[in-house]
Amino acid sequence: MYQYLLLLDTEQERKFFKELYREHKNEMYYIALKILNNESDAEDMVHETFLTLTENLPKMMDNPPQKNWNYILTILKHKCYNLYKKKKWEIDDETELENMKDVFSEKLDDRMERLEKKELILKVIKGMK
After folding, report:
1. Looking at the chain, which terminus has fewer C-beta neighbours within 10 angstroms, N or C?
2. DSSP secondary-structure letter at 128?
3. Nearest Cα to Cα of residue 55 among 4, 20, 11
4. How far is CA 129 from CA 61, 122, 123, 125, in A?
5. Which strand (E) or helix (H) includes residue 103?
């Protein structure tokens, strides 16, 4: 928490930030963990959310607590979903790469035979009532 406090200008901002941190850090972690299913990623997203909050803290200080919580929750969810999408793309890219390796390692005759069988099966299925 102390690294966040160093980013703040006034004692009033520091006090407000400490309250937000104590009040919401556990619940934020729980929500991030439910979205990402990874403890390390959840911790990272909570950290990134608090960094974002330090940039916008003066705007939040006059808001009611529920509005601040909604704002925090929105930031956290966006960060989690962005990370989730990024990791999904990385997994999809790895899967595609593995599939390409399989295609190139497969003999041409075996591949042609497999594709012909697939076409035949599809033709039979389409012809069924």
Report:
1. C
2. -
3. 4
4. 67, 13, 12, 9
5. helix 65-105
The pair of three-digit structure tokens given for residue 17, joined into one six-digit string: 């930030």
The amino acid that residue 44 corresponds to is D
Structure-token match 């929500």, residue found: 31
Q: What is the pLDDT along the chain (129 residues), one digit of tens a residue?
A: 556 666 777 788 888 888 989 999 999 999 999 888 889 999 999 999 998 988 888 889 889 999 999 999 999 999 999 998 887 766 555 555 555 455 445 566 666 677 778 788 888 888 877
DSSP letter for 6, please: T
Q: Which amino acid is at 56?
A: N
Domain residue spans in the chain? 2-127
pLDDT of res. 23: 93
Return phi, psi of residue 6, to 5°: -65, -20
- Report the candidate in 71, 77, 4 with the shortest Cα–Cα distance to residue 35: 77
What residue type is assigned to position 94 of the chain? E
